[in-house]
Amino acid sequence: MDAAEPRFVVVAKLSDLPDGGFIRAMLDHHALVLARSGGTVYAFQRTCPHEKADLAQGRIEAGRLICPRHLASFDLIDGQVSRGWKLDALRLYPVRIEGDDIAVDGEAVRQNPPGGDRKVWDLTAR
Among 5, 21, 25, 107, which residue's Cβ finds the most Cβ atoms within 10 Å? Predict the structure, then answer.
């Protein structure tokens, strides 16, 4: 393997992920969600950057992941949150389909983990 090539790790079976479906997965103790929409498989952090809702309970509409708790949506290409919300972007990870295997870029997960840097909210700032 080339040193610059991402290291993909098999985390689930494609046959277990129906179109429109979600699967919870773990990679190196990091909680992820896999979602399938229109033949594309996405991998992203399991909890919402806002109130930590389980995003495996969300839904996908028009290329956006809808949070099940507060209905903000995240673009599944770049992770950006819908207008009006001041949240961190959704952490997305590269996916490869290898036969029936769904593989996620493990190095990308390790370098940009789903939990990110823990922050204390400053509610006094305007």
Answer: 25
